[in-house]
Design the sequence.
């Protein structure tokens, strides 16, 4: 088995293990904690939101939107919100 090296993981191929560095949008600490890179979206609660999600399911943009328009229809004295 390879030597233990900080910020790397062991990957098995069915017969042996290979040491591999974590790369891409994640890092791993020597204690095993995995940290994902920020997506650029501010953590918040969004109202009437417009959300964009990438192919990996990550939210890549979010913004507050405008409230929808309500219409009032009054016929023969009966009014309803449409």
Sequence:
């Amino acid at each position: 088995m390879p030597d233990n090296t900080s910020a790397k993981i062991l990957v098995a191929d069915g017969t042996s293990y290979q040491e591999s560095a974590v790369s891409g949008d994640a890092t791993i600490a020597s204690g095993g904690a995995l940290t994902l890179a920020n997506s650029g979206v501010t953590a918040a609660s969004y109202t009437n939101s417009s959300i964009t999600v990438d192919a990996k399911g990550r939210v890549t943009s979010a913004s507050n939107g405008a409230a929808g328009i309500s219409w009032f229809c009054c016929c023969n004295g009966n009014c309803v919100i449409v």
Notes: Residues 52 and 59 are 6 Å apart (CA to CA).
